[in-house]
Amino acid sequence: MQDYSTVPALARLAVKMKAFLDWRCCSGDETDSNREQSITDLPWRAGPIRDFMQVIDQLNLLLRFPKNANPTQGRFPNLRYDPLSCDPPQPRTEDHYHSHPVSGLPLNFYDPDWLSSLTEIERAALDPAEAIDLALPDAIFE
């Protein structure tokens, strides 16, 4: 398995992600009636960011098994499911614990419909930064 920290495009993206993403940008979860954890929704966060973070979560799990060896130390993430992936799809529950938007994120981190619902004063207080490219190197998906 390749050490992706040596891939220039991914290294640049990692620097950006460390600067912009913290726990306030991550969706939470809640236990459903079957005692399974479903992913909650941050209404202000753009869908592509949710998808991007799911890929990062999958990469994190994959990289826990270097060169088909034993897993690295540390706690494994909890298994969670996305209600939208159910058959039939179920609505996501809004995350009430940290649903306040994070200010200063790149513009493409915010949901466009949510952004358009803001007043001029609210949008100015949000102070979004310039959008950034979130393209992952093709090598990651191989």
Describe the protein's architecture and organization:
This protein has 142 residues and is mainly α. It has one domain (4-141). The chain has 4 helices and 3 strands. The chain has helices at residues 8-20, 47-62, 112-116, 120-126, and strands spanning 29-31, 37-39, 80-81. It has a 3-stranded mixed sheet, with no helix packed on it. A hairpin with a 5-residue loop joins strand 1 (29-31) and strand 2. The protein is globular and about 55 Å long.
Features:
4 helices; 142 residues; 3-stranded mixed beta sheet; mainly alpha
Task: Give a nutshell description of this structure.
The chain has 142 residues and is mainly alpha-helical. Helix content is 29%, strand content 6%.
Class inferred from helices and paired strands: mainly alpha
**Total count of strands:** 3
Sheet-strand content, in percent, reads 5-15%
Helix-strand pattern: HEEHEHH
Q: What is the general shape?
A: globular
Q: How many whole angstroms does the radius of gyration measure?
A: 17 Å
Summarize the amount of helix as a percent range. 25-40%
Q: List low-confidence stretches.
A: none
Tally of structural domains: 1
Integer average pLDDT: 78
Number of helices, where a helix is a run of at least 4 consecutive DSSP H or I residues: 4
Topology of helices and strands:
Layout: H1 8-20, E1 29-31, E2 37-39, H2 47-62, E3 80-81, H3 112-116, H4 120-126
Parallel strand pairs: 2-3
Antiparallel strand pairs: 1-2
